[in-house]
């Protein structure tokens, strides 16, 4: 790799779009890019523990047969080790209980990703059940670490994807987001992460809806344009889906091709319930507000008039019940033991079994009521601006899955909701939201800025993200783990 570590540096590229352009001009081949990606992984992954279940032969076969001539033809790509089921790509799903699961058919989202022409060669780590803000699953025999500082987490649940992209192993990777699981790693790793409107992307055929519609797939990227193009390629419900997202007025790629209209922006300086946040994170939010004002947007401090504590209780119950369902199905009558399921998973089962049988539908009703509350908020603004996380990236071990107190892990003092009080709001409401890499702590850890829009207004949101990306001062530092 000529002394270079990351793929983008190796080929003097900015992002996956640039790499695909090199392939289209025949300056490099898909095999060249795959070799560079594998070499970067061999060098960096022992320190990061981000990439698992490599399927190099599957990628080479796909290249040999001929990758589809899509927008990312020849670009190396990794799938999250949770969901995105595919015949040639076994999965642990972040769990010893589900280790080496194989699939008999592809998911709709995988087929659409593959049609873009990417060369898929492996998976990236995820916490068990996808219910953590860090990625430290026992099945991987160690935590996944942040390329910016190996003592800190890259986030979760798409933590391996965030680490792999930030480190330069691949330029773009699949993730998913049920409570911030794309946006949290984006914030922790200095990347762009976008959660679309509910049902914008397909769930089938393995899932009808994830976590009562709160979970959706997504991508970790260096640039807004890579996400926009991938979203356009993958958008649309699969046949038989229980519901569809409203149609976009324009594609994501078209939306970022010109500046957005001037917008009314609600600035949330602390949390949505009025608590203060880490001072360096708060300063980054204020800097983002000044940038948006300088671009001509109207920025006004405020708080969403919505029952966030009620929503988080309902979210916690729904996810606990969903986790328990998955674990009980996979156990197939076996005992729920510590060698098969980690502490938080066992705690989720215990919590779910303590609930009244009617609680699930009651919690779904509360989530729907919350969605209506949040819809009303956007009668008075176009965008909500906040931090993505209330703190810089957490240290390794803070959110380990050792505790069996599932509720406290999520909502107790020092728990995930205090650390990440913004993201799950928009999984519950179904509204689109994004984390944009705009800040950096004095110690060199990334800070993400969160932008959210009204239900269905994905095009407005991604256009604003592109304008911010273009206008923000360029951060020239790179993660220490990928330096020469």
UniProtKB/TrEMBL annotation:
Gene3D superfamilies: Amidase signature (AS) domain. Pfam families: Amidase. Residues 32-461 form the Amidase domain. InterPro entries: Amidase (IPR000120), Amidase_CS (IPR020556), Amidase_dom (IPR023631), AS_sf (IPR036928). Belongs to the amidase family. PANTHER family: GLUTAMYL-TRNA(GLN) AMIDOTRANSFERASE SUBUNIT A, MITOCHONDRIAL, TRANSAMIDASE. This is Amidase.
